[in-house]
Amino acid sequence: MAFLIKDELKTVSTIEIIDIITNSDDEIINMIIEECIDVMKTYLGAYYDMEEVFAKTGDYRNKTLLKYLKALVIYEIPKRRGKRVPKDQAEDFNEAMRWLEKVAAGEWRANLPPKKVENEDGTQSEVGFFKLKSNKTYRNHW
């Protein structure tokens, strides 16, 4: 079973409207879901094990990630047919992208399995969250 299927989009839109926009072509929806999952993997893949995350199904999936994936998918569906995206869907999309950007920047942590790297001695350790910054430069008046 896939991480997200068309019938689960009923929490963000009606299936009838989705069918009208896509002309009942489930292949379009599956492609949009795969593309949006790839976007999420790009943002979150540096710190989290994306293969493990998207291999889960049913109640084992992360609900926050699922919510934002649905927001990305439902935003993309009308765009495929040249339709105007409703304001509430655009706001949900923007919220999802902000969340992805904050997590990717290391400002927020997601409740996802961490990415592991193999050490020289053969053991595995989690990828750390590094945030490199410098102190603000102050200009002296003297």
User: What is the strand tally?
Assistant: 2
Record the strand order, biggest sheet: 1-2
Oligomeric status of the shown chains? single chain
Order of helices and strands: HHHHHEE
Number of helices: 5
| Sheet having the most strands | 2 strands, antiparallel
Helix content, binned percent: 40-55%
End-to-end C-alpha gap: 68 Å
Shape: flat
Unreliable segments of 5+ consecutive residues: none
Structural class: mainly alpha
Rounded mean pLDDT score? 87
Q: Which strand-content bin applies to the residues?
A: under 5%
Rg measurement, Å: 19 Å
Can you put this structure into words, describing what you see?
This protein is mainly α. Helix content is 49%, strand content 4%. The protein contains five helices and two strands, in the order αααααββ. It has helices spanning 15-22, 26-44, 50-55, 63-80, 87-104; strands at residues 116-118, 124-126. A two-stranded antiparallel sheet has the order 1-2. Helix 2 (26-44) crosses helix 4 and helix 4 packs across helix 5. The longest helix has 19 residues, at 26-44. It is flat and about 65 Å long. The termini are far apart.
